[in-house]
Amino acid sequence: MQLVQLARRNITGNAFRSWVVALCACLVAGLALGTTLILRGADSSLRLANQRLGADIVVVPEGAVEKVEGALLMGHTTRVWMASQNLDKVVGVPGVQAASPQIYLSTLLNASCCSVPNMFLVAYDPATDFTLEPWLKNTIGQGLKLGEVVGGAFVFTPEGEQNIQIYGYLVTLKANLEPTGTGIDQSMFMTLETARDIARVSVTMAVAPLEIPDDGISAVMVQLDPGADPQATAVEIMHRVPGVTPIVSSNLFQAYRKQLGSLRAGIGATLGLTLGLSVLLIGLVFSMAANERRRELGVLRAMGASRAFVFRTLLVEAGMLALAGAFTGITLTILVVYLFRTLIVVTLGLPFLMPALSTLAAEVLAGLGVALVVITLAALFPAVRISRLDPAVAMRE
């Protein structure tokens, strides 16, 4: 009788034991993969958000750091203002190669004059912008014209319509950015000219007008000279421009990074506890099964089966249960994470991005490997003990 056939018969012969082991494997693999997906997805989103900003330093009004970070990362609508003269002051700081203003706005909530409620809007200056304009020229061959916008990955024109309505003003969606798993995916980008034109039209076309101060901006994106020290330049900006807070790009989203660190520690402890309990439970189940099958294995040895054959049979049985349970757990985990990814973002308060297929495949294999190792280690001691038992002694007991 072949090794795999014998292992399969042993599995089907004791359904309860097999279900317990497979369930543990399902839990271990599912939890390991789910942990990896959430932590790496959040970490990737934070990294992509930094890259998408494309600025070495972001200058915001004093006291508005958390609001701006929440807007840029999670798409939380915010309106913060500082004097537009700050832009000229920032440009004059040594080490600053380029600086470009941005204005943060939002659509109205539950208003017929806005196709999408409470959407985060970013208005930028195409004459000085060094983040979005280069991408636009590479993608659509030109910058945005009056009335044209760029949307995040999840921004789309309403079905049956050709335009998106913002404060009663019809804008044309020209392109979509790649997904980042952040609030950028549900945000809209337009030129300052378009934003001010929307404000002009909104006075008569919207439920409430869009108000943009003539001398106000929300933030300044800063690009440094090659070799310039970001920290030193940020300190110099703070000294020369009162009432602002410069944030070095590497220090952006610190509150979210700390939250991710706490989440990583909590989930890591839970995963470690689960692995330990699973090893103990599976080891106990296999020990009980080995004791029940002493006579059966003794007969097998008496018929000429070697200790190595008995040992391999028990390990193959454990491996088959591990793979079956782990595959089920991994499939359910991927399905749950994909279907409820928005709920995950809301619950954890962190951005999340599903990995590429190649990365996901590697993580699935890692999850299968973890389950296989855990189950095999748990079954190792009972398998060694029972395989070394003398056939005559085993058949008498």
Task: Record the SSE blueprint.
Elements: H1 3-13, H2 15-53, E1 57-61, H3 65-74, E2 82-83, H4 85-91, E3 96-106, E4 120-124, H5 132-139, E5 148-151, E6 164-166, E7 169-176, E8 188-191, H6 192-205, E9 216-217, E10 219-224, H7 230-240, E11 244-248, H8 254-292, H9 294-302, H10 307-339, H11 341-348, H12 357-387, H13 391-396
Parallel strand pairs: 4-8, 5-7
Antiparallel strand pairs: 1-10, 1-11, 2-9, 3-4, 3-10, 5-8, 6-7
Helix pairs in contact: 1-10, 2-8, 2-10, 2-12, 8-12, 10-12
List keywords for this structure.
alpha+beta, nine-stranded mixed β-sheet, 397 residues, two-stranded antiparallel ribbon
Protein architecture, described:
It is a single chain. This protein has 397 residues and is an alpha+beta fold. The mean pLDDT is 80. The protein is 57% helix and 14% strand. Helix 2 crosses helix 10 (307-339). The protein folds into 2 domains: 3-47 and 257-396, no CATH class; 57-227, no CATH class. The protein has helices spanning 3-13, 15-53, 65-74, 85-91, 132-139, 192-205, 230-240, 254-292, 294-302, 307-339, 341-348, 357-387, 391-396, and strands spanning 57-61, 82-83, 96-106, 120-124, 148-151, 164-166, 169-176, 188-191, 216-217, 219-224, 244-248.
